[in-house]
Amino acid sequence: MHLWLYAGFVAFVLVMLALDLGVLNRGAHVFSAKRALAFTGVTIVLALGFGGFVYWAYDNDFAGLGTQFKQLEATEPGHVAAERAASQAATAATSSTVVADGTGAIQTATSVAGAPMQSVGQQALMQYLTGWLVEYSLSLDNIFVIALIFGFFKVPPAYQHRVLFWGVLGALLLRGVMIFAGAALLARFSWMTYVFGGFLLLTAVKLMLSGEGEVHPDRNWAVRIARKLYPVSREYEGQNFFTRVDGKRAMTPLFLVLLVVETTDVIFAVDSIPAIFGITRDPFLVFTSNVFAILGLRSLYFALAAVMGMFRFLKQSLVFVLAFVGVKMLMASVYHIDAILSLAIILGILGVGIAGSLIARKPESAADDGSMPHA
After folding, report:
1. How many domains does the chain have?
2. pTM, whole model, 2 decimals?
């Protein structure tokens, strides 16, 4: 894998962030729900559009992506067993045809039971989309915690955008390190798949048993260390992270908020990164799907923070998503779940949670209307 491919992708992301803060959102201002929805739509379109590049790049082995993908698939636990089972189930119905692509190169398309097998590009695209969807859905829980942090520190709405912007930038760096460390562990120790799977199941159980989320920023280790090393001003100084108090450089409360947001994201990443490795072991797919999910987090916060209470069963949906991915990893040596099936199951779980939340709100709305005083 050429490092310039990652460098090019990171450069693209940095340009997008620079346009965001330096051109489209200069100065402190309140991010309206309408504007947030528009930006959320843009990030979703970008993520889906990048899926087209994934399909083309892996199908054409651009920068060796297709070759690396096939090597990782071949070494994934359960791959041999899954291939053997598929071969035995369709021995009589397997046929091969030879076709020519647009370049004149000869390709072999194998069909099983009348259905053509997926190309490398199709497999990579399904894994990318599933990984992006999982990370995006898990980030919804992160949004709720960020809202609690802003409420605890009484951050003015006009300054929240800047905190989230730099929070996203820091998250990209920290998650990048964690992703490549995780990929190295899986490449060196195949049994780490089961460790990650077990960890996800424990996380799902913990999330199910936990009550309403509480945030205690004053207990945050980064905040305590920062207060000991650096003076902190009493009031916000606009959207500045640093100011001067009695002629000495000091942090503003806004910088403490940024520290809490960053360290909280690390905690969420410990849960979400093993989940995406349950979808794909390809580091490029893991990294890019994670980045696009994080890019949408800031605008998604402003679009959904005010209405998160509507989705009362969303937490339960996330529990089942984590549990499904955990079971998928633990079953890797016995049964291989296809990427399309994984995507369908995860979409179904989230759809049931959202639909259940909306249905449950109808009786409450009717009760509220009935309790209104009459004129």
Report:
1. 1
2. 0.72
